[in-house]
Amino acid sequence: MKDVRVTHIGGPTTLIEASGWRILTDPTFDPPGRRYQFGWGTSSRKRTGPALRPDEVGPVDAVLLSHDQHADNLDDRGRELLAEAPVVITTRAGARRLGGRVRGLRAWDETVLEGADRPRVTVSATPCRHGPALSRPVVGPVIGFALRWASQEHGVLWITGDTVLYPGVREVPQRMTVDTVLLHLGAVRFPLTGGLHYSLTATDAVELCRLVRPRTIIPVHYEGWSHFSQGRQAVERAFAAAPDGLGERLHWLPLPTPSTY
User: Taking the CB of residue 65, how many other CB atoms lie within 10 A of it?
Assistant: First the structure.
């Protein structure tokens, strides 16, 4: 996508710089080592820290928060950063919990970012299901985000959010053309629930990208936590075996040198 820079900070956390905007996704900035409880007997240990501290990221214009209820998408230092962000966009349930300047969206709702000397950015919430069928009451609501602005040439920038492959997420390519996708991967699993997955597997990511046909595929949310059951190698194998040269569209972003805490 023209004039867009994406910096992968770790896990799902990225900094998107485009047309004068600085947009942060799912802020996770705690140091490694701690185990976090996710509810219903599930937990995960953070194995690696972020590549940048919040002060190294610098000021941001908006935070896109797919959900607030899991620490691998919003941890303690990430919560501190929210207080400094001019705009935070998340689920409606998350907006009620967080309060302040937080905008809450359901799937297919839209909101607009506006700023001086910059193009308006329309943010559309996209569907997510963070686990198997009927899991929503347990895992809570999640959304993804599709960003579009006037200078885009080939389609939206889509951040999938934490989701499995299900009919709701298959609607995205039916409703919009995607140029670049930030894929939340990891094939999240917990011992308590056996083989059930709570985020995209490598195989499902390939199937989704065959539907979406983006020009650029950027993996995130695949490293740094003990509940991720698939990492980079599994994703590379799946995309290398995909037809139509889909693997050539896969771009791994180098992490900056990790910060010292």
Answer: 29
